[in-house]
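Exercise 3.2. Students should predict the tertiary structure of the chain below and write it as structure tokens, then compare their answer with the key that follows.

Predict this chain's 3D structure.
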Amino acid sequence: MSDTPTRALAVQSQQPDRALSVFSSTSSFEQAQRIAKALVSSDLVPANYRGSDNLGNALIAMDTAGRMGLSPLVVMQNLHIIEGRPSWASSFIIGALNSCGLFVPIRFRIEKLGKRTVSFDRWEGPKGNRSKVTAKMDVEDMTCVAWTAEKGTGEILEGPPVTIAMAVAEGWYTKPGSKWVTMPDLMIRYRAAAFFGRLYAPHILNGMPTEDEVIDIEDFRDVTPRPAAPVAEEVPVEAKPEGRPTGVHAAMARGKAEEATKAEKPPRKKTEAAPAIEPEPENEEPTGDAGEVEDADFTDETDANDDHVPFGDAEDDDYSPA
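Answer key:
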């Protein structure tokens, strides 16, 4: 009875200290900055974490190390940054899986498949006018499966198989300077371990790929823009009216429409009036003097329907009505 509290105290004292969470509080962040300043000043850390300009990278590595329960220096040595993407060293993946306590050490099952012909796609042609063609190559194919047993249950766990034919088809094998050509046995084991870890222990890898995967899976397709095709002229589409106006708005709309219609119509040409045909005067003897004959053509325009004989001037004293 007296030994139970002592054993409990002993077990409790053996538990490791809780890892520092960098972004949990302001005080934790300030304390992490002091630790990070000491790390970035060391020559033992990689260049991506060295110097005051890379203080942010060091803080992220410290946060990752705290969540994984590892030393910040170990994480910095194995967490590589390629084109802004963090990735793990392939050897670190195997070490993390073996030391996580969930599985027995990782094992690999290799099977030789012999020589076979594999098809793959590649880009050919000058820059700006490349085309994708299908090529073939002969390789010594083999398959690799990473497997282990789960602690506690003893269940056998196997990862997805990886083959040399897969490496060729995915473009890993045919890349310039690829290690798949010179070290196929090592690369196929690294890739099988990465597949196993991403399938059965993603929380250990934090969802990040390996350095070799980032290099191999990086997109090397032809991104040169092709010549632009002729663009068809777009026909403007009239906007659909929101609704039919009513009341005063309808009257204003009709008025504007009528004004626009009048403005669009061309002005009519003025037709010249036809000259009026004057009736010929009757041949009657003038009643006035002979010198006043030139007034015989005068007609009274106020009464166009009556034919009157024009009178002489008011100055004619010889005129006397009958």
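Discussion points: Residues 88-221 form one domain. The first strand starts at residue 79 and ends at 82.
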